[in-house]
Write a structure and sequence with these properties.
CATH class: Mainly Beta
CATH architecture: Roll
Structural class: mainly beta
Largest sheet: 15 strands, antiparallel
CATH topology: Lipovitellin-phosvitin complex, beta-sheet shell regions
Distance between the termini: 40 Å
Helix content: under 10%
Mean pLDDT: 83
Shape: globular
Strand content: over 45%
Low-confidence stretches: none
Number of strands: 19
Length: 310
C-alpha cells in the first residue's frame, strides 16, 4: 500500500456492561401553517408556529455480546415542550413525579394526552441496539407509549438513530442508508404508497476534531424525503354518512447536520441537525353527491442538538 493512503477509522459503538450515559436533547422550531377553502375564511391566512423541546435521559447497558449488540435500559428523566400557534401557547412537563399541561394560569395533571408521558417516565424502556446504532427492538412494560397522537416511543427512538459505517472508513469517504418512514398511528395501512416512502441519507467522514475535550470523528449527513399524491381514507364511526379522504399533495423534507463520535470510547458525544419540512394536504369530505374540499400547508424549520452530559 502506498505511503499516501489515508488511514482508516473504526466508528462503532463499544457497549460495556454496567456503563451509564446521560444525554440532553433539545429542539427549536419555527414556521407557518395555513388553511384554505373553509367557509368564511380569509384567503391566504397564515398562522405562525413555534416549538421548543428539551429531553434528558439516561442509558444503562444491561448486557452486551461479542458481536456488539447490547440491551440498553433507558430512563427518561425530564421533558419540557412549549408549542405556540398564533396566540395559543401550551407547555407540557414531565418527570419522575408525573406530567402536566400548563396553559396560562391553568395547570392540568389528568388528561388523555398525558397518559403516554406518565407511562414513559414511570418505568424504564428496554432498547436492543447493534454496534452501528440500528435499533432492533424497543420494549416498554406498558407496551408502546404514545407521546402525542400518531407518535410512539418506538418510532421516535428508531427514527432518530443515525447509522454508523459497516467497517473501517477513511476520511472523505461516505456511506448511505435508506430506511422506511414510520408514520405511526396505523397510517401505513391506509396509505397505499406509504411503503415506498423512504428517508435517503448520505454520511461522510469529514475529519477528526476536538469536541468537549475528546478526539471525535466529525460525520456530516444529508437526508431527503420527497413524495406527492399519497391518498388515504380516514376512518369514520359506525353508521357515519360522510366519507373523508386526505391527500399529501407534497411532502418534502431535507435534513443536514454533523455527528460527533468518539471512536476510541465508542460513544456519541454530540450532534447538530437542521431540518426543513414543507407539507401540503388536501382534505375531501363527501356526503351523497355533495363534496367539500379544503387544504392545509405547513412549513417549518427545526434545529436539533444532542449532547453527552459529563
Amino acid at each position: 500500500m502506498c505511503a499516501c493512503a489515508r488511514p482508516r477509522v473504526i466508528i462503532a459503538y463499544r457497549f460495556a456492561k454496567g456503563e451509564e450515559l446521560r444525554y440532553k436533547m433539545t429542539m427549536r422550531g419555527s414556521g407557518t401553517t395555513s388553511t384554505a377553502g373553509l367557509p368564511g375564511q380569509r384567503s391566504g391566512a397564515e398562522t405562525p408556529v413555534k416549538l421548543q423541546v428539551e429531553l434528558v435521559y439516561r442509558m444503562v447497558v444491561k448486557d452486551s455480546d461479542d458481536r456488539g449488540n447490547a440491551d440498553i435500559e433507558t430512563h427518561f428523566e425530564s421533558f419540557i415542550s412549549t408549542t405556540e400557534s398564533g396566540t395559543l401557547k401550551i407547555r407540557m412537563e414531565a418527570d419522575g413525579k408525573g406530567a402536566r399541561i400548563i396553559q396560562g394560569e391553568t395547570v392540568v395533571k389528568d388528561a388523555p394526552g398525558l397518559e403516554g408521558l406518565k407511562a414513559l417516565f414511570g418505568s424504564p424502556t428496554m432498547v436492543k441496539m447493534d454496534k452501528r446504532g440500528s435499533v432492533r427492538s424497543i420494549t416498554h412494560p406498558k407496551g408502546i407509549v404514545e407521546l402525542l397522537p400518531h407518535v410512539n416511543i418506538y418510532n421516535l427512538l428508531k427514527q432518530n438513530q443515525f447509522i454508523l459505517p459497516e467497517g473501517p472508513i477513511a476520511i472523505g469517504h461516505s456511506w448511505n442508508e435508506k430506511r422506511d418512514i414510520a408514520l405511526g398511528g396505523g397510517l401505513e395501512e391506509r396509505l397505499p404508497g406509504a411503503k415506498a416512502l423512504k428517508l435517503d441519507t448520505k454520511y461522510t467522514l469529514a475529519g477528526l476534531v476536538r469536541r468537549n475535550g475528546r478526539s471525535c470523528a466529525d460525520i456530516t449527513l444529508r437526508g431527503e424525503v420527497a413524495a406527492k399524491d399519497l391518498i388515504m381514507d380516514l376512518p369514520q364511526g359506525q353508521g357515519a354518512e360522510m366519507a373523508m379522504k386526505a391527500a399529501f399533495d407534497r411532502l418534502r423534507q431535507t435534513t443536514v447536520g454533523n455527528i460527533y463520535f468518539d471512536p476510541q470510547k465508542g460513544l456519541m458525544v454530540g450532534m447538530h441537525v437542521d431540518t426543513d419540512q414543507d407539507m401540503a394536504m388536501t382534505m375531501k369530505m363527501a356526503k351523497g353527491e355533495t363534496e367539500t374540499k379544503f387544504s392545509t400547508a405547513t412549513k417549518i424549520k427545526i434545529e436539533s442538538d444532542l449532547k453527552l452530559l459529563e
